[in-house]
Amino acid sequence: QEHKAAKSKEGGSYDIALLDTEKGIVTRFPPEPSGYLHIGHAKAALLNDYFAHEKYQGTLLCRFDDTNPSKEKEEFQDAIVEDLGLMGIKPDRTSYTSDYFEELYQYCVKMLKEGKAYADDTEQQTMRDERMDGIASRRRDATVEENIAHFEAMKAGSKEGVKWCIRAKISVDNPNKAMRDPVIYRCNPTSHHRTGDKWKIYPTYDFCCPIVDSMEGVTHALRTLEYRDRNPQYEWMLEALNLRKVHIWDFARMNFMRTLLSKRKLTKFVDQGIVWGWDDPRFPTIRGIRRRGMTVEALREFILKQGPSRNVVNLDWTLFWATNKRYIDPVAPRHTAILNENAVTATVKGARVAAYTENKPKHGKNPDIGTKKVAYSPSILIAQVDAQGFSEDEEITLMNWGNAFVRNISYSLNPLKRTVTGLELELHLQGDVKKTKQKITWLSIEGQELIPVELVDFDYLITKDKLEENDNVDDFLTKETEFRSSAMGDCNVAELRADDIIQFERLGYFRVDRSFQHGKPAVLFNIPTGKAGK
Ligand code: ATP
Ligand code: MG
Ligand code: MG
Q1: Which ligand has the shortest distance to the CA of 34?
Q2: Which coarse location class applies to the principal site listed for this UniProt protein (predicted)?
């Protein structure tokens, strides 16, 4: 429910034309189960959900567009259902285009019999050229009997059948090329993940989408703008078959800088091992961005806030992560980690010799988050970068403890790279924490078990802001996209579980990808906050 509240404060406002006679609207999300959902699909899914469930009291359908057995798999279908659930989207009904293969076949036969479609075996490139040039296929005027015979051969998946396809007989030279006799059925003897070997013919999206929309009672078909040229074709199919009309509502595709949003291209990344899998934190899949630390509430808010604008924009990830930060900052527990590289051991004069612990709030501004243990002793760890900034006798603040003077800094002998190798601190607890320049994090070496952690940051996979359709992706791959550093975390880090989102003070926000177990370091992914370069 939080996401609704957030959205009505921030959200864009959308509307679609409703007829007086329409009681409830019916929308549908039609994914092809040929990959995992990405953030572009999330926009389509969330908009359909918004109209069906938030703006109006309607019905949301999820229909798997499973008409290409060469690309589709059950694994993808299950993942899509799960990912919709993760986004808080609950379709009222789930169906499959393959549920309608019999009806679609009958509709195609009807079109053939009424002379509204014909069988064609024109070679692919020639067909493309003829369509470009507005030239009629030599098969365009075949008789109904011939066409039906070819369709039956296709249906049987025979050697002859696979050479043919069925085309709607709309126009040879309509200025809108989408109207130039589009293909509506293909022969493909590949086994289908739901219908097995029953069918050797598969309807194209152009054919089955309007028909099944109409049959399932869809009132409003939301389509991305690239389909605009195909809208008249969608309407033609319904008219040709005398089926109930459906309103089409266009919306803009969502694109992101330095990001591929195409299942086909993402599949290549997975297959080539450029990423760990579909849930890689560098991937724009729902799983990937969740693994990177995006919250569902922020995702919904960000997408619905884009508004109904029809401009296709190339969005910047920084905006997206800035939205997320507003959701995680008030609730992320705060912990301490000190980077291992040249970490400095400091002696604290004036500290009680026997180590002890105190309970401190996990979040300074939100007592609901609970408390954590902070250990104190005369021996503490501080980060090299902090020690580098100290000058002799300066007063600094040890966060969660108090002020101290810096004494006796010792440096390594290498004059080119002056590393701090040790120092002393003299507690000055009556000092004013508001007056110090340096407020540093630290960890007591005694009185607690320090937990090894691995901190991972990532870069974009792609070097170019906006890839063009004919750019070769391989020319724009970022060489190094994964950056690891090891650190020690406070004792409370041992209790963190996978998926927890926390803040390591002064280092940033992190999502726990693997918890600390069997002595193996906890692995945490840095969550971008929308600051420049992140
Ligand atoms: P892809 O090229 O990534 O495979 P697609 O459109 O072929 O995308 P589908 O599974 O057919 O994938 O898409 C399901 C729905 O998601 C469609 O309504 C489609 O228009 C929409 N969609 C896909 N990509 C985007 C995007 N970048 N922005 C908005 N909507 C999108
Ligand atoms: Mg598609
Ligand atoms: Mg596609």
Answers
A1: 1
A2: cytoplasm
